Every structure is written in structure tokens, then in C-alpha cells.
Amino acid sequence: MNRRKALKNLSLSLGYVVAAPAIMNILSSCTSKVETWKPSFLSIEQKNLVTHLVDIILPPTNIPGALDVNVPEFIDKMLNHVESESSQEIFQKGANAFAQKFEATSGEKASKGSKESVQLLFKTYFNLSEEEIEKVKKEQSLLEGEVANDRRNAYLIYKFLFTVRSYTLFGYYTSEKVGEEILSYDPIPGRYDPCIPLDDVGNAWSIK
Amino acid sequence: MNENSSQENFEQYDAIVIGTGISGGWAAKELSERGLKTLVLERGRMVNHIKDYPTMNMDLWDFEHRGKATTEDIKTQEKQNRTGYTINEASKHWFVNDLQHPYNETKRFDWIRGYHVGGKSLMWARISLRWSEMDFEANKKDGHGVDWPIRYNDLKPWYEKVEKFVGISGKAEGLPQLPDSIFTPPMPLNCVEEEFQKGVAENFDDRQVINGRSANLTGDQERVGRSKCQFRNRCIRGCPFGAYFSSNSCTLPAADRSNNMTLRPNSIVHEIVYDDTKKIATGVKAIDAETNEKLEFHAKIIFCCASTVATTSILLQSKSERFPNGLGNDSGELGHNLMDHHFKVGATGIYEGHEDDYYKGRKPSGFFVPRFRNIDKKTKQKNFVRGYGMQGGASRLNWARSIGEMSYGAQLKEELLKPGQWRIGVNCFGECLPYHENKMSLNYDKLDKWGLPTVDFDCEYKENEAEMRKDAKQQAVAMLKASGFKNVKGYENPCFPGNGIHEMGTARMGRDPKTSVLNKNNQIHTVPNVYVTDGSCMSSSASQNPSLTYMAMTARAAHHAADEFNKIKKK
């Protein structure tokens, strides 16, 4: 059954107050396959790493994950068309530094490396204490030239990882599937209720 | 709509209206409804209501880059992108291509504009506020600029007239500094906006938080071709419901129903023709934007509604033996006293609580804090004259709250499906004084692709605006803190003239022809059959959003013109 149609039918039969995740459980059997695609900005190595990272950042559960809504392809397009030349350059540097680190630590090729190995490396960067997190955030607010030489590589890798993470969120929560079927979708509200119980809505409104 | 596309030179009309924005639409409507055969010239392309709103029903995922401007877009619309909200996939087509329409900046000026039928009435923020008695008296009282030749009572019946037609949602408050309009029902404040309202009421006796006042239809009154706001908040794209006021949805269709209007898009007016012997203007010269054909149209009355900068540019280009420095420019003030509202100063905060409350619908309006500085002896400030209002809204944060954080995984995914904390934002809009040296002029060394001079801007905010901004930030912070908001952060971001898109002045009204361009009826002092009723006529800027005042001023001037026209006709 077409998942979207199934959902729309269900919404109709259940009415306005519907907890989306519950429906998704019923429908989790009809997840679509991720398309194969050719990157326009990312290298083959970067494509593989970004695909795993996206999957680690927003994995599938009883509701779709980032790969189910083609986030890697979206990231490739945004980097190519929306990011400025200077941030493209920073991204490339960071992605390549991450790839090198990946090959050195896992012994696998970046173009074929497994999700598990990528996750191992990613954790070394993102599983940090509160204190370390604050340090990283502070460092990320600097320009590349302002970073000490021995921190340069880590700084660029973080730039890369933060870019992938923010575009993963952006691509996921503004995708058609999530926007229409998982978040609360109401293209023509028709009226304004200034203060109603959150339970009457369920998930957050899909943004305009 | 009667679209005149075949050119017959020297066509004769009763009136010509230059421009189709918020002022031009009103001039077209009032003049044609009074029986004048009216030619409406628009430099940009045709935009038919609904039919030509390509993005009006698109969801974010329907756009190739989920709404974001591409680097290519930004290259062609670099200056139009300076607002941060205009150039995106939903609305970029309403703003000019900066490469095709260059201008020059002796000092930075963000000239944000659209060349199409409807002008900025399609993209405006719809906030509709009357000016008050104290705004029209301000120049006289503190000596900045020249005295307005009109007072609030001159404009009051015209505010009423336009409000009945436009439909302004809001709530009557009885405040002297912000007279009530004739309202349709207000858009309610949400629970956290109400907390702010309550907090300010409890902690300050000199100011209040009120419902936003905006030109979005509410209530059950019927209006031709329009229905009420559906709370989509996609106004900037053009509204398929005709729920907000624009020339395209309201005034131009009304003018069309009179059967007296001819609308001609793609007509770049560059000169008003002055007859030295008759001592009146006889018509306008224009260029067809598509064919480059030279055009001339004649009329008894000319209404300049091309926008502040464009109108004054046309007047400056209209040189004759009598007026070597531009039409009606005996005073030398034409192009001077350029103003805009300064903003991008205020505060944000988080509300802890109301976690189980939410809203339905996307409100195209928020709250407003009417001016509370320098409105009487008690509120007089040492460091600045005039004042500012505050605009803002509260909403629950979305998934983007997590950008810049380092969490990941299934739990993050679930968590971001839920709305985040309540956040409130307050943005202050302040009055800018009329400074003679803040000006625009023409550059004949740099011509545009039609061989017309480009505009040079030399304008800056000064001490009074800077002092006002300091106070505005402090007050916004104090009001949020007193109302119980947490993590309150004041901000004051760089703000350049033009960015408020409330550019005003450059052909000001006044009592004395020696120091002003226009008289109390918006006529050029020395060329009474030319009326200027867009932002260029303003003698001061007040702190209120100006569109409603342009509408009232235009309707008033149009009826004056129609009266004069009928008098001559009867003779």
C-alpha cells in the first residue's frame, strides 16, 4: 500500500487528534527504498561518509530516518547551490580531513567504509563531556585563521560534522514525508486559536 | 482590466497615475471612481491577482532548495538580499535584479524594491497604524525639519475612508499617541504574548502591549473579491484568498470596475513634461521597458506614486527652462530629507512554562507596544527627541533550536518532533529625523540600460537615532525581564537606511515654498496639477509604519484633484 495514501486515509478515519508515531508503527512495513543517486558536489568518499553520518544522526526507528527521506542527496544539492565558495572550501577541507582520519583509524577505504566504523570515529568527536562541548562550540565560532595550528585539523573536522548535522536536521524536518505525515500539517488553518492544549495537536506544526 | 499595449503617442487622459503600489492603487481607484479617465503607468510587469502568484500554495518541500536562496540568486539580488528575508525561493521574484537595476551608495543605502504591478503592496508587512496629532506637530515643536502643513484632523476622515475599504484587524485602545482605526476583529495574542502584556501592565504605568494592527481581513463583513485571513502566513507570496490588502487584490480591481482606468505595465516614466507658457504639467514621457519605444501621454492631472526614491528621481529628471534643477525644485529641497525607520534593536527571551499550551494557525501579525517616550512632560527624554514603537511575537521553537548542538540519534529525532520552548522577540522601530544633508541625487555618468541616470544615496543615521537605540534596547530588556522571561538578551544590530523599507521624504510637504516642495494638498507648490502622494511627500517619519498614512493622504489628494478637475470642467 502506498504509505502516504494509507496515512491520509487513516488520518481521515481517526480525525483531528492523532498521535502520529502510533500511526507510523502500523505503517512501518511500507518504508520506501533509498534511491541510488550520483553526487554533484560530494566525492564518492564523501558521499559514503556523509550517508553514514546522516544515518547515525537521525536513524530510522518506528518512524523514518534521514536516509528514508533522501537527506544525503539534499545535502549534496545544498552544498552545491546554496553554500558560498568559502564555506564550500571549508567543507571540503573538513570532509577530507575526516576521511583521512577515518582511513587511518579504521583501516577501511573512505569510499567503502562501514557505518559501524564511521560511528566509532564520529563518537570520538561527539560523545563529549559538557565542558568539552562548550570548548568545541567556542572554537567553532572562530575563523579558520584564528585557530591554533595544532587544533586546525580538529576544527575543520568539526566544521564538516556540524554542517552535515545541521543540514541533516533541515533536510529531514522540512521533507515532504516528515512535513506532511509526521509533523502536524495544516496548510490552510482557516482560523487562529491562540492557546490550545498541546495534546490536541500532537507533534509540532510543520513550518510554512 | 483594460491593458493598453499599443502605443498611440500623445494619448489624452484626464489623469495619469505613475506607479501601482499602495499609493498608486489608491490614486487609480479614487480618480477613476470620481469619473476621471485615468491612465495608470507601471514600470514593471503585469501581475494579475491570484493568477500571477506562482508560489502561493507551495510547501517548503515543493521548493528545490527548501526555500533557500542559491548563490546564483544572491549574485543577481545582492542588495535586495540585505534584509535577510526577501530573497528566498518563495518571494525572490517580487524583488528587482540588482545587476539590471543598479544604484550608487556614497553611503550604504539598502534600496529594496519590486518592479511589477502592485509594487510593494504585494510584499508589505501589512502593519497599519494611524499617525497622531503629536506626529504632525513634532517638527514645529522641536524644530527639526519644517512644519507639516496639515494636522491629524485633516487626515482623520481619510483614514476612516480607507480603513473601511482596506479592513484592518485590531483592537481599540483609546491612546493619544496611536489613534484607533476602524477595526475588524483583532487577531488574539497567544498565551505567552498575553504573559508579556500582563507583565508590562503590572510593572510599567507608561506603556502597554496591544494586539497588532494589520491589513488582514478578519470578521464577517463582506468585501468584493476577498475572503478573510486563513492564517497561512504566506502573505508575501500573494494571497489566493485576497485576505490582505494589496493594489492587486483591492484598489486596482475597484478602479477597473469603474471602467475609467487604463493600466499600462512596462512603462518607465522618466520625465514630467512642463509647459513654460501654460505653467502646468501637460503629460509624461516614458520608455517601454520591453521594446524601448519612446512614449508620451498627456493629461490634466498627474499623480506621482512611483515610490519615494523613484518619484523624486522622475521629478529631478524633469528639467525645463523654468525648473532647471528638477520640477518644482525652487527650494532646492528635492532629493533631501531622506528618512527611513531604524530598527534591528530590541531583545529576545525564553518563557519557562505554558509547556502544555500551543496554538493553531500561523498568525500574520503579533503584538505592538505603542510609543511611550516623549509623548508628554512626564515621558520627556534627555538624550533624544521623538520615540519608537515595539513590534514582536511569541512562538514555540521548532527543530532548528537544535542547530549548533551536539546531540544525535533516535532520541534527538523524537525530541525535535515536539515543539520547543516559547521564545519571544521584540524589535523596536524608531523615528528618524529629517536631515537636509541626508539625500539622494542623480548620477548622469552611470546610466541604466535605458540610458536613464542612476540614483546616488548619501544618507546616514545620526546621534538622535543612536541615542534612541540605546534606550530602546534597555527598555526591551527591562520589559521582558520584568515580565518573567528568562535568558533575556538585548541586541542592537547594524541598521542602514533603506533596510526598514519605509523610505520617506525627498519631496516634502510644507507651508513655505522656499523650504518645501509640496503644499497641504500634496500639490507641487508651483505646479498645482502635479500631486505627489507616496512616501516622498513626508515631512517627518514618525515611528509608525507609514503605508496607512500614504493611503489616506493619496485618497485625500485624489479627491482634491477630482474637485479641481470638475470645477474647471464646469466653467
Describe the structure.
The complex is a heterodimer of chains A (208) and B (571). Chain A is mainly alpha-helical. Chain A has a domain at 33-171. Chain A has nine helices and one strand; from the N terminus they run αααααααααβ. Chain A has helices at 3-14, 20-27, 44-57, 71-81, 85-106, 115-126, 130-140, 152-173, 176-182; one strand spanning 193-197. Chain A is globular. Chain B is 22% helix and 20% strand. In chain B, helix 1 runs parallel beside helix 6 (247-257), helix 1 (22-33) packs parallel to helix 10 and helix 4 (152-166) crosses helix 10 (547-570). The two termini of chain B are 32 Å apart. The mean pLDDT of chain B is 97. The interface between A and B is large, with 59 and 55 residues.
Shape of chain A: globular
Number of strands of chain A: 1
Sheet having the most strands of chain A: none
- End-to-end Cα distance of chain B, whole Å, is 32 Å
Radius of gyration of chain A: 20 Å
Radius of gyration of chain B: 23 Å
Question: Looking at the structure, what is the overall shape of chain B?
Answer: globular
- Estimate the strand proportion of chain A: under 5%
- Mean pLDDT of chain A equals 87
Helices of chain B, by number, come to: 10
**Most extensive interface between two protein chains, with residue counts:** A-B, 59 and 55 residues
Low-confidence parts of chain A: 1-35
**H-E order of chain B:** EHEHEHHEEHEHEEEEHEEEEHEEEHEEEH
Q: State the assembly state of the protein chains.
A: heterodimer
Strand content of chain B: 15-25%
Number of distinct helices of chain A: 9
